[in-house]
Write a structure and sequence with these properties.
Oligomer: single chain
Number of helices: 5
Strand content: under 5%
Helix content: 55-70%
Radius of gyration: 18 Å
Order of helices and strands: HHHHH
């Protein structure tokens, strides 16, 4: 679910085109903003490019972790953004919306269980 966009931490957009064809979706918070922008620009037959001969250092989620410290909360926000994209831009039916919600809940439970197991194992290792 990328909507014709390049996902990454360094995004450059022609501001005139962005203003003309639609800014970020105000219903989407924190995650998947570039996906909605990519969908909007792709619907106008505009292209996305990926520049491969430059690089940069990205300190992944440093500022995000300061404002939302819980991995679980960040995961919930991400899944909620993805659900909104599926419903709004891919016209997900009510039945499929239910299926996706169930699937996302299961992935969240899995994430929580993995975190709990890792925490438990690190405590055990610390006691050895």
């Amino acid at each position: 679910m990328r909507g014709g966009c390049v996902v990454g931490s360094l995004l450059m957009v022609n501001a005139e085109l962005m203003i003309k064809y639609g800014m970020y979706d105000e219903d989407i918070f924190l995650f998947c903003e570039e996906t909605t922008l990519g969908i909007k620009l792709k619907s106008k037959n505009l292209k996305t490019i990926l520049i491969l001969n430059h690089n940069y250092v990205h300190h992944h989620s440093v500022s995000l972790k300061k404002s939302i410290s819980s991995d679980i909360e960040r995961r919930k926000i991400s899944l909620n953004s993805k659900l909104k994209i599926l419903k709004k831009y891919y016209n997900l039916s009510p039945f499929m919306t239910l299926i996706v919600k169930i699937f996302f809940k299961l992935t969240l439970i899995e994430f929580m269980l993995i975190k709990a197991c890792k925490s438990y194992l690190s405590k055990i290792k610390g006691n050895l």
